Design the sequence.
């Protein structure tokens, strides 16, 4: 199906474990983004990417690693998960050709125990 | 980054128009005004954006003050499905300025 997908949709992991959240888009959008949303808060930008092999930090990058070897994929890795990283994670993509509108995935709810 | 100010919440009645205000007194000349909304348990979705002139699309209208220091999102006929958090965001035109900085938004409740 076309669009932007995230996997898994739900994940429970233990403190200290590595976990990777996947994001895939089928539009060939140049920009991709990772946000986290905590209860009662707006979204905060973790990392973003302007193109394959180009990534940059957002507002809250500590504890996260990203890569973008292909335009359509933008995985987010928590190298050693902590309880404070329990959150809902949203991936988004956008294209300069489409007025910079960002299209969001359905989110991944991550719980770190 | 230029910031926006929105009320915390607003209530409206179904099938009536809704005006959601946003103040952005420090907006720069190249900042676009974007609105997104987030329905419960979903990711945000784009609603509308504009630069200087008022804008209309199938979802809503955006009225921008002449000095661009404020704007209003207008839902012409609210439905129960419009109950959501609405975010007013300023966005630069290119490159790193294309990031979105979300505030807390305004929570819209729609009464049947």
Sequence:
């Amino acid at each position: 199906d076309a669009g932007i997908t995230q996997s898994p949709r739900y994940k429970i992991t233990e403190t200290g474990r590595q976990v990777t959240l996947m994001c895939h888009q089928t539009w060939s959008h140049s920009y991709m983004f990772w946000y986290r949303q905590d209860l009662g808060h707006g979204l905060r930008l973790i990392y973003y990417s302007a193109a394959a092999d180009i990534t940059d930090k957002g507002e809250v990058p500590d504890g996260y690693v990203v890569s973008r070897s292909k335009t359509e994929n933008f995985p987010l890795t928590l190298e050693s998960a902590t309880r404070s990283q329990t959150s809902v994670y949203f991936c988004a993509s956008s294209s300069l050709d489409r007025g910079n509108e960002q299209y969001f995935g359905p989110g991944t709810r991550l719980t770190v125990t | 980054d230029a910031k926006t100010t929105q009320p915390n919440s607003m209530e409206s009645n179904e099938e009536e128009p809704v005006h959601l205000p946003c103040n952005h007194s420090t907006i720069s000349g190249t900042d676009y005004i974007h609105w997104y909304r987030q329905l419960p348990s979903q990711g945000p979705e784009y609603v509308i954006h504009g630069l200087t002139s008022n804008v209309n699309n199938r979802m809503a209208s955006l009225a921008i003050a002449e000095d661009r220091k404020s704007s209003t999102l207008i839902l012409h006929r609210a439905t129960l499905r419009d109950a959501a958090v609405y975010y007013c965001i300023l966005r630069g035109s290119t490159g790193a300025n294309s990031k979105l900085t979300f505030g807390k938004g305004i929570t819209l409740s729609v009464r049947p």
